[in-house]
């Protein structure tokens, strides 16, 4: 009986050392779960020590992948690519995730908690949103019980978007707003998102949930709020979308990063990051910024460095 209980308390999570994954893993460990993770960076510093078993991704060997998942009752899947880079494309991410889902089922995993994106669509012209929709369907077709979480923008101490907007308004006299700036963002706090992930582990219901916070901002309102809380007198100017994107490309070369992709611009301006409905997390970005305005945006957060830099 004790062995069965231990097995049922074992959770596999992709990216336990990643931004959201780290917070979710901490909650799971606090709740008494045994955790193992799959990662592209098995040599990366492990903040959890021997409390988390670490395995490399092995998408090219589905049998080996299944072996790493044996004994886990739940798979939490956060694996995806934000933008194509080298051999990492949306298409390969879709195929790899399909392989992971099949391996989980073959290993006896009973449930999947899958992190998607707000407003995915199989007919979207945007590869990011189309790929996410395809994977949601793969989760549904797996025959396993599941929760699909659809976050928008996740904010917190180590986030990318909110932090880097703050960095820009701290360091530049002008900030370009693409288009009319009226398209919405409904951000969720990283600890609220992690709690949704951890809570979904202990269940058997089939559920799709928008992971959104209690506040909705237009993009221009968001930038003004950030500027005010960090004490910046930056001037906001509205720019044609193509010109704003060109500016991010130029600045991206300066900081050695991909700041925003064209697809992310389009998704933002199509209002895909502000779904309606009840809040699934209580933390207000406005309050968080008021409490963290002195430190947010003090350093630039590089997506490329976080995910693609070689680890020592």
Strand content: 15-25%
| Rounded Rg | 20 Å
Instruction: Enumerate how many helices there are, as a single number.
Output: 12
| N-to-C series of helices and strands | HEHEEHEHEHEEHEEEHEEHEHHHH
- Major beta sheet summary: 7 strands, parallel
Q: Spatial order of the strands in the main sheet?
A: 3-2-1-4-5-6-11
Q: Percent helix among the residues?
A: 40-55%
Task: Specify the structural class.
Answer: alpha/beta
Give an account of the 3D structure.
This protein is an alpha/beta fold. The protein is built from 12 helices and 13 strands. The chain has helices at about 1-10, 20-30, 60-70, 90-105, 125-140, 160-170, 190-200, 220-230, 240-255, 260-270, 285-290, 305-310; strands at about 10-15, 35-40, 50-55, 75, 110-115, 145-150, 155, 175-180, 185, 190, 205-210, 215-220, 235-240. The strands form 4 sheets. A 7-stranded parallel beta sheet has the order 3-2-1-4-5-6-11, with helices on both faces. Strands 7-10 form a two-stranded parallel sheet. α2 packs across α7 (about 190-200), α3 (about 60-70) packs across α4 (about 90-105) and α4 (about 90-105) packs parallel to α5. The longest helix has 17 residues, at about 90-105.
């Amino acid at each position: 009986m004790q062995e069965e209980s231990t097995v049922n308390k074992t959770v596999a999570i992709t990216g336990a050392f990643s931004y959201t994954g780290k917070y979710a893993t901490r909650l799971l460990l606090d709740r008494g779960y045994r955790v193992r993770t799959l990662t592209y960076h098995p040599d990366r510093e492990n903040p959890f020590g021997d409390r988390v078993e670490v395995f490399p991704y092995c998408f090219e060997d589905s049998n080996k992948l299944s072996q790493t998942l044996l004994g886990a009752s739940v798979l939490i899947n956060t694996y995806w690519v934000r933008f194509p880079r080298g051999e990492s494309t949306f298409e390969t991410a879709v195929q790899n995730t399909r392989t992971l889902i099949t391996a989980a089922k073959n290993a006896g995993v009973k449930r999947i908690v899958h992190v998607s994106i707000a407003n995915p669509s199989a007919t979207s012209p945007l590869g990011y949103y189309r790929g996410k929709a395809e994977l949601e369907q793969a989760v549904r077709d797996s025959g396993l019980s599941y929760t699909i979480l659809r976050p928008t923008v996740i904010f917190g101490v180590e986030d990318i978007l909110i932090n880097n907007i703050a960095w820009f308004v701290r360091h530049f006299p002008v900030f370009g707003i693409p288009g009319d700036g009226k398209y919405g963002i409904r951000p969720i706090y990283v600890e609220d998102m992690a709690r949704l992930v951890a809570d979904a582990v202990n269940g058997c219901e089939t559920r799709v949930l928008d992971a959104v916070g209690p506040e909705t901002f237009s993009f221009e309102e968001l930038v003004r709020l950030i500027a005010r809380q960090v004490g910046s007198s930056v001037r906001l100017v509205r720019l044609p979308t193509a010109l704003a994107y060109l500016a991010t490309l130029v600045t991206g070369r300066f900081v050695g990063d991909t700041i925003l992709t064209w697809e992310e611009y389009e998704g933002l301006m199509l209002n895909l990051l502000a779904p309606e409905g009840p809040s699934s997390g209580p933390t207000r970005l406005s309050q968080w910024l008021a409490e963290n305005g002195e430190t947010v945006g003090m350093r630039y957060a590089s997506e490329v460095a976080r995910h693609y830099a070689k680890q020592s």
